[in-house]
Amino acid sequence: MTGRVAGKVALVTGGASGIGRSCAERLAAEGAQVVLSDLSDEQGAQVAGHIIARGGQASYLHHDVTDEAAWIDVIRQVREAHGRLDILVNNAGIGLGGSVIEMSLDDFRRQMAVNVEGVFLGVKHGLPLMRESGDGGSIINMSSVAGLKGAASLAGYCASKGAVRLFTKAVALECAGAQDKVRVNSVHPGIIETPIWDSIIGTGGPGANAAPQRSATLDAMAGAATPLGYKGDPSDIAEGVLWLASAESRYVTGAELVIDGGLSVR
Questions:
Q1: Residue 59 forms beta bridges with which residues?
Q2: Which three-class secondary structure state does DSSP give residue 50?
Q3: In this structure, what DSSP letter does residue 246 have?
Q4: Which of 93, 142, 147, 242 has the fewest CB atoms within 10 Å around its CB?
């Protein structure tokens, strides 16, 4: 099946790497006009260029999701360039690990600002444009398995992703009540090979060894904790996002799409 989101306009935050990049590439491959946003301008422009080189439609915007004025400007640019918004993937996020008694209030607030306030601002400013066409749309908020169950040394991250989970359900009910044809769902990845883990498990830092160290650590974690016994790839999440963005999930709203190799049910 091809063209599953043909003619749709999609905005993907945090689209320069990891899950966001994979989502942007997958949506573009299925016909969407993709606007990806991030703070990493060089990487973001490269992703957009890669999509275009493969025959897709994409553009990149610099975007701090914690800044309301930036959201207003990004939505303005989407309206001016495309005249509509059909798919919003609130993917941008950060992960800060460590003991709750050692985490600074500044770090806790920064994580909440990106992971929760960024999603709130995306919905607040993206939903009106999505409603304008009268065709409805799909809002997909990136939560986590950490939004479903607790994890030691991830109290702040769990709090932020749990907030995204219930925020999603509340907005889904609001949209359903408004009969605006907008569906709102959350996605809950498990152990997925992405750079966000570098700050959570301490494998970040300069040098070429960062990614191999992360990969080896995640292999061990997934082998021990995940029933399927192996870690996921960003493309595994992108496939779920594509389904939620397409008409194939037209009767799905307020749901939690868990993609974790069975981690949450062990």
A1: 35
A2: helix
A3: S
A4: 242
Q: What is the DSSP string of 105-144?
A: HHHHHHHHIIIIIHHHHHHHHHHHHHHHTSS-EEEEEE--
In whole angstroms, give the CA distance from residue 175 to residue 179: 6
Note the helical H segments in 68-209. 68-82, 105-112, 118-132, 155-178, 196-201
Tokens at residue 140, please? 């997909």
Q: Regarding the domain delimited by 9-190+232-259, which CATH topology (the fold level of the hierarchy) does it fall under? A: Rossmann fold (3.40.50)
List phi, psi (to 5°) of 83.
80, 0
Tens of pLDDT along 132-168? 999 999 999 999 999 999 999 999 999 999 999 999 9
Q: Any idea which residues carry the catalytic annotation?
A: 157
Q: Which amino acid is at 116?
A: V
Question: How sure is the predictor about 203, in pLDDT bands with cuts at 50, 70 and 90?
Answer: confident
In the DSSP assignment, the letter for residue 248 is G
